Hints:
Radius of gyration: 23 Å
Oligomer: single chain
CATH class of the largest domain: Alpha Beta
Distance between the termini: 26 Å
Structural class: alpha+beta
CATH architecture of the largest domain: Roll
Amino acid sequence: MRSLFKRSAAALAITAALLSAPSAASAQDGNAITVTYKDDIATLDPAIGYDWQNFSIIKALFDGLMDYEPGTATLRPGLAESYEISPDGKVFTFKLRDGVKFHNGRAMTADDVKYSFERTVNPATQSPGAGFLGSIEGFDAMQSGTATALSGVRIVDPRTVEVMLSRPDATFLSVMALNFSFIVPREEVEKSGADFGRNPVGTGAFKLAEWTLGQRLVLEKNPDYYREGAPKLEGITFEIGQEPVVSLLRVQNGEVDVPGDGIPPAKFREVMGNPEEAARVVEGVQLHTGYITMNTKAAPFDDLKVRQAVNMAINKERIVQIINGRATPANQPLPPTMPGYVEGFEGYRYDVEAAKKLLAEAGHEGGFETELFVANVDPQPRIAQAIQQDLAAVGIKASIQSLAQANVIAAGGSAEGAPMIWSGGMAWIADFPDPSNFYGPILGCAGAADGGWNWAKYCNEALDRKAADADAMVDPAKAAERAAAWGEVYRQVMADAPWVPVFNEKRYTMRSARMGGDDALYVDPVNTPMNYRYVETR
């Protein structure tokens, strides 16, 4: 029998951790499961939450007008029973389902839809996703403070909402399935105020039963959920504060059902070398790019030559090896499977001497000092160390700030921003399968606002206009033309070099022997990291 423990000291340390860990609901409760995470969930407010850890939990608690077929990127109606689009592509009329209830028992109406959209757009909410609703008529007026309502959202009757756009938007239905447009009850938001993210009330398949900060978060089945046959589970317990290596061992011991932080890279070969365990590993292609941001609004990264030099300094092949080859080196923001990806694009070659020359031309012949922020979950700190070494080779001394991912996100979204951020573990996996999603929130001007995810603080207004023109191509017959237009946008992004695209990562996760359901639900392309509404126990 193969031993899980290689050294006695390690065995004692891990055993102690297991003994001190909370008992798992899945071990006793039949149709409830346990998921572990190292860090606490930052928020469950759909207008605010925007990291991979809370993304799928929010989707378990709330719904939007549109949804996706489970395990796919195929859109379907959600809280809307049906919809109609005007011939010019600028007016969307949604008919709401009858009998949908919030977790507090109140029926959802068209008023809730209007309120929810306006709450996200309202600058006081500081939603990092407000820009997704930017095509709705009245958006600019609300953002500037000259209006308190979206003129483009009209309540026809309690079950009908009409949304008028200021321009055609090929992504609008996808945005209606994104958490920033999820529907919330005004009375619960007003009751909880800034704490709504800790006291979420939605229409979703699950509702919050318990949240002990730093320890556990428990969801229970919503018996009034509008989708027949969902959810499959009675409940989910998220245990917080679990080191990924310990979480993996608990999955191997049958005490935990899913390691939320994935399979630790240091343990990947060991797991794949065990046929029984390898059979429970789920692999999926995800629309992902890991990248390094540089704060383009602050010296020295306000200098294009410095940013180009950093691009040339990074050895991407070596970084891919740190994660056991579970990625391919990237040379542009879009992943290879996304429409708009530029085939044959070379990007910036790895060239230490050329990087040094550019730095000298920029007045930094002796290099400079900076900070590199990184999430503190393995393998991210090790990747940051590799980046640090690459930067040192061209004279850049980067001190690593290894923090909980919520703190890294806060630093990147603050007004002053962070000098450099390695995005691994936090960004960017597509919110929806469209090239625009890799631009607006993380490279567009709107995303550079306080609380936004454009951590490079990059704003090219001319490029924003080109992006808007690309999204105005709503005719499916122009799909190839639209993809080409997006390709040109990303060529220009790389010319401005606000990022270093590092790799496109595959997703691997593991499930316990008692977990059932289609593999696609565990690497769901739009419910990252997994679709809690449809996974089930055997």
